Amino acid sequence: MIMSHILKMYYGIDVDINENGYFQYQGKLYYFAYLKNVQEFLNVYHYYRYLMHQCHLTGFQLVKNHNQDIISQNCALFIYQSASFDYPLYLQNILLPMPLPKIKVIDIKERWIQKIDCVREKVREYAYSFKHDQDIISLIYYYCGIAENSINVLNEILSIDSKATLSLSLALIHTIDNHVYELLNPCMYCISTRPRQIVYLLRSHLLSYEDIQKLLENQYYDVYEMIYLYARVLYPSHFFDEILCSKLSSSDVENYYLYLDEERQMYEEMMKIVSFYVRLPKISWINGENMV
Questions:
Q1: CA gap 60, 183 in Å, rounded
Q2: Residues 58, 52: contact at Cβ < 8 Å?
Q3: Contact 185, 60 (CB under 8 A)
Q4: Closest Cα to residue 236, out of 112, 130, 127, 105?
Q5: In the chain, what are the domain boundaries?
Q6: Which has the higher per-residue pLDDT, 3 or 42?
């Protein structure tokens, strides 16, 4: 209701906004979003516009409000310009490093450890809320175990170079639906690493294992990025984010359990691909007998 009120007050558009923020108006697709950090988003949008230019697309454009401002109470309205979409061209450009300072692997490790600790703290809360259902507790412990192995993979990089860094580019914030407009929505992006983008495209079923092999063969990735790619595969940020935001429903928990077999295959397939180029630490407990 609040978002609809802001939309009507600042843009004169009186429609119901779906939970995902998209709506149709006068035959056009719009997206209305709340921006947690306006400056951070504008930094992303700057590189997003460059990406659209390189892909010969318009994508989503910011719409000015009645006051000729692009931000309305930390909200922004976008209009989508549909066009022929060249996915290989998109991949080629989205995976190019941006001219930004690199991120330190040790900083990533510290953030991941902090997040694991926060998730472990949530166990008590979930144990109380779900005292008659232990499935969610088992899932939390399982993913914390997976995350600990992702830290071990990061340690492999740091054992080579304690000051190792990674290039930055645009990357998806989370998995998306298989729609072009979702893939081209600037609010779905953050400034992060190329491996993050590859993993979220894989998890969104927009890349196959064969596609990833071709990317690694045809684009340059250094040793640190290769190893980090596997750490990124293991690190369950999608699950952790839902836990920390208390957004996990009973149906979500069931879906995670249904997804475990596919996820285990992902760990195995990606290990085969990445270990062709670099040495990875062995993770023997990720097998059928030891999974939840």
A1: 11
A2: yes
A3: yes
A4: 112
A5: 2-84, 103-275
A6: 42
